[in-house]
Amino acid sequence: MRIILLGPPGAGKGTQAAGIVEKYNIPHISTGDIFRKNIKEGTDLGKKAKEYMDQGLLVPDELTVGLVTDRITQADCENGFMLDGFPRNVSQAEQLDTFLKENNIELSNVINIEVDKNILVSRAVGRRICKSCGATYHVEFNPPKIEGVCNVCQGELYQRADDNEETVSKRIQVYLDETKPLADYYAKVGILSNINGQQSIDEVFGDIVAALGSEK
Ligand code: AP5
Ligand code: ZN
Fold this sequence. Notes:
With 216 residues, the chain is α/β, with parallel strands linked by helices.
């Protein structure tokens, strides 16, 4: 199964990705996570990406596309993968298409999680993430059992640098301008499923699994 997860910031892509990769046993490739790891490690890529991420802007395609295509060619992606946060604009989608064609790889599904703009800001601003295992919580909608502590590994929870109201609003605008058109792009290919992201986390997951079917 080769899946793309689309949706605005705070739609629940990361939350749903955790369940999808476990159920279908495929690697989770999140460009946002890769950039954040590089920022933490202080690499050149991390330094460059941070300039854009802190402003809520897209990291330039030159720094992003090769990262994903290299990752897809690794052995653990042979039987499938899930892309989360990539592609992010039509140019990235076209470059991905070219790469997939050259390598005889076909996408199976594009899952588009839809959530109203006014809900997205509170979802992102209230998000907390585990420093150790990456599990995602929300102070109100999905709180951990003990405040500030991960349920899974007891790690410390933190807030992402770009999860403040101003940067989230910018990210939503960038999504509307650059990423939203990708839904039409993949609808034309016939592999798009729109999912109502304004249900409980479990209900959203159920709809995604129904859209993906039992295909491997
Ligand atoms: P990225 O890391 O991809 O972030 P994003 O797309 O902005 O998405 P988020 O991680 O904010 O949201 P999500 O949909 O994963 O929501 P989550 O599940 O956490 O990108 C960050 C930055 O990196 C970009 O701005 C850009 O600079 C750069 N970048 C990344 N990829 C790039 C690319 N391809 N090209 C260029 N630049 C790129 O959920 C949010 C909150 O809501 C959580 O607290 C969760 O608990 C809660 N929640 C989830 N589902 C529900 C529900 N059903 N009901 C109630 N609460 C819920
Ligand atoms: Zn944890």
